[in-house]
Design brief:
The complex is a heterodimer. Chain A is an all-beta fold. In chain A, about 0% of the residues lie in helices and about 50% in strands. Chain A contains no helices and eleven strands. In chain A, the strands form two sheets. In chain A, strands 2, 4, 5, 6, 9, 10 and 11 form a seven-stranded mixed β-sheet that branches. Chain A has a four-stranded antiparallel β-sheet with strand order 1-3-8-7, with no helix packed on it. Chain B is mainly beta. Chain B has no helices and eleven strands. In chain B, strands 2, 4, 5, 6, 9, 10 and 11 form a seven-stranded mixed β-sheet that branches. In chain B, strands 1-3-8-7 form a four-stranded antiparallel β-sheet, with no helix packed on it. The model of chain B has no long low-confidence stretch (mean pLDDT about 95). The chains are: A mainly beta, B mainly beta. Chains A and B meet through strand 5, strand 9 and strand 10 of A and strand 5 and strand 10 of B.
C-alpha cells in the first residue's frame, strides 16, 4: 500500500526558509522510473507544480520559483524534501507531495500540509 | 510554459447526466518517445487530488468505468457517462510532456 505524508512548520515569517518533508511508504525512490513531486494550492485556487526528483537524483524545478527551491531525497529513510527560501505571504498554501509513476502520472498523493506565511 | 485551458470552468449536472470537460494545450503533448503525458485528476471538496485517467485514456485502477478520456495532440476530453453524487468536485488536467509540468485551471462539477 502506497502512502505519502507531508510535514512542515505550519506557520513562518516572511523571509524565512520553508522546509517540507514527504515521508512515504509502499515504494522506493531507488526504483527505476519512480519520482516524487511537490505541488501547492493556495486556498480556493488551483494547483501549481513546484519541483520533482527522480530515482536517479535528476531534478526539475518550476522556473518561476527555481532560484528559491531545493529538492532532495533520502532513499534509505523513504523521504523527500523541499526547501523554499525567502518566503512571503504569496507562499501561503497547502503543500502536497505525490508519487510520479512510470508514465508520469501523479498516482498517489499525500493529505497535504497547510503553510501560512505571516508576520 | 505549456498552458492548459479547461472548459467550461463550471459545469452543472443532474445525477445520471453525461458530461464532458475539454482541456486544450498551447503545444502538442505528443512526446518524442511516442507517449502523450496528459492526465486527469479529481479533487473532491476538502480532499487531496486523485488520479482518474493517465496517458490520455488509461483508467487508473479502482476508478469507475463511467470515466473515460480521449484526444491527441493539443485537444483532450474527459467524459463522465452518468454523473453520480460522488463525482462532484474540481477536475484538473495536467501535462508532463514538457517541463515544467503544468495544470489546467480546473473545472468545477456541481449538482444542478
Amino acid at each position: 500500500q502506497v502512502t505519502l505524508k507531508e510535514s512542515g512548520p505550519g506557520i513562518l515569517q516572511p523571509s524565512q526558509t520553508l522546509s517540507l518533508t514527504c515521508t512515504f511508504s509502499g515504494f522506493s525512490l531507488s526504483t527505476y522510473g519512480m519520482g516524487v513531486g511537490w505541488i501547492r494550492q493556495p486556498s480556493g485556487k488551483g494547483l501549481e507544480w513546484l519541483a520533482n526528483i527522480w530515482w536517479d537524483d535528476d531534478k526539475y524545478y518550476n522556473p518561476s520559483l527555481k532560484n528559491r527551491l531545493t529538492i532532495s531525497k533520502d532513499t534509505s529513510n523513504n523521504q523527500a524534501f523541499l526547501k523554499i527560501t525567502n518566503v512571503d505571504t504569496a507562499d501561503t498554501a497547502t503543500y502536497y507531495c505525490a508519487r510520479i509513476e512510470g508514465l508520469g502520472a501523479l498516482d498517489y498523493w499525500g493529505q497535504g500540509v497547510m503553510v501560512t506565511v505571516s508576520s | 510554459d505549456v498552458v492548459l485551458t479547461q472548459t467550461p470552468p463550471t459545469l452543472s449536472a443532474t445525477i445520471g447526466q453525461s458530461v464532458s470537460i475539454s482541456c486544450r494545450s498551447s503545444q502538442s503533448l505528443l512526446h518524442s518517445n511516442g507517449n502523450t503525458y496528459l492526465h486527469w485528476l479529481l479533487q473532491r471538496p476538502g480532499q487531496s487530488p486523485q488520479l482518474l485517467i493517465y496517458s490520455v485514456s488509461r483508467l487508473e485502477s479502482g476508478v469507475p468505468n463511467r470515466f473515460s478520456g480521449s484526444g491527441s495532440g493539443t485537444d483532450f476530453t474527459l467524459k463522465i457517462s452518468g454523473v453520480e453524487a460522488e463525482d462532484l468536485g474540481v477536475y484538473y488536467c495536467v501535462q508532463g510532456t514538457h517541463a515544467p509540468r503544468t495544470f489546467g485551471g480546473g473545472t468545477k462539477l456541481e449538482l444542478k
